[in-house]
Design a protein that fits this description.
alpha/beta; Rossmann fold; 10 helices; about 40% helix; binds NADP nicotinamide-adenine-dinucleotide phosphate
Length: about 290
């Protein structure tokens, strides 16, 4: 099986290359190889590589910038995704794509299921939802993993940012009224590879049969404040920290252009029921990341 990983230098893309290479050929591409927002270039690139499976980890992830750049976000998060769905349908291949908890408004007061009504609060969430809908309308052989709060110690993420700030500041103020499911980029990459591995005999058919949206996030939920505190406490290089106090603050303390869902934990039961897979508890993943 030949897999093309788009966004191969990002948090998830960089982690997915190694497990995929255990059972097939893997071609990685990032912005320098092809701008997925350039649809003609993307089409030509995909046809040249001719993969059986595309793992699309490329995304326009700048939630606040998207408020001023709706078209830019739509090009990458929706139009490129539609093109990938179309191409893989035409070539009888398959697509694994990622979406976000930001498609929800965070007001239900319980973990979201795949069939809960989306209601994005900002342009980033709208663009990701448009990508999901395009794949559904095309009836593409596509599995969409909706994830949340993706972190990695090796790339820019909320967790790595907090660890950096802990080395620079004595007091950290972190919002405690946004709740979500922290997801290790490595765990999500491994789940991705396990789904691809299970489908390898006939990836087009397997993805066509299983097509749709699946929630795939770390088990458990917490606030940004709890996540920051756990990361700082677990960091084995604490002697480098300057931080003396971590203080909870409301979201209103940090006014940002885009609204975020207040509480959008994801119920990942469908992923377990269909594939027998579940991501570990977020705290266990965080602890493990510091030991390997
Ligand atoms: N990060 C989160 O908290 C989060 C939460 C929910 C869902 N997700 C979804 O999970 C998936 C993976 O996210 P991630 O955190 O791994 O993202 P990431 O670390 O930002 O990686 C995305 C990669 O795509 C590249 N890229 C951006 N625009 C591109 C373009 N026009 N053409 C080609 N490549 C481009 C980026 O390059 P540059 O770095 O050079 O821009 C980067 O290497 C995405 O679909 C994202 O929407 C992420």
């Amino acid at each position: 099986m030949k897999t093309l990983v788009l966004g191969c230098k990002g948090q998830v893309g960089s982690e997915v290359m190694a497990p995929l290479a255990c059972f097939g050929e893997v071609v990685g591409a990032d912005l320098a190889d092809v701008d997925v927002g350039d649809l003609d270039a993307l089409r030509a690139f995909v046809r040249r590589v001719a993969p059986d499976l595309v793992v699309n980890a490329a995304a326009y992830n700048e939630v606040d910038r998207a408020e001023q750049d709706e078209q830019g976000a739509l090009r990458v998060n929706a139009h490129a995704v539609a093109l990938l769905g179309e191409e893989m349908k035409r070539a009888r291949g398959a697509l694994l794509h990622y979406s976000t908890d930001f498609v929800f408004d965070g007001t239900t007061g319980r973990p979201y299921r795949e069939d809960d009504a989306p209601n994005p609060l900002g342009k980033y969430g709208e663009s990701k939802l448009a990508g999901e809908r395009a794949l559904a309308e095309l009836d593409a052989p596509a599995i969409v993993l909706r994830t949340a709060w993706v972190w990695s110690l090796r790339r820019k993420s909320f967790v790595s940012a907090m660890l950096k700030l802990a080395r620079e500041r004595e007091v950290l103020k972190v919002v405690d009224d946004q709740v979500g499911c922290p997801t290790s980029a490595r765990d999500l990459a491994e789940i991705t590879a396990l789904i691809a591995y299970g489908a390898r005999a006939d990836v087009h058919r397997a993805f066509s049969d299983a097509r749709g949206v699946y929630h795939a996030a770390g088990a458990g939920a917490c606030s940004r404040f709890e996540l920051a505190r756990a990361a700082i406490e677990l960091d084995p290089a604490k002697h480098e920290h300057k931080v003396r106090s971590i203080e909870p603050v409301p979201t209103s303390a940090y006014p940002l252009p885009a609204r975020r869902p207040a509480s959008a934990p994801l119920d990942c039961g469908k992923l377990g029921a269909r594939f027998g897979l579940a991501l570990p508890d977020w705290r266990d993943s965080l602890a493990r990341a510091f030991t390997v």
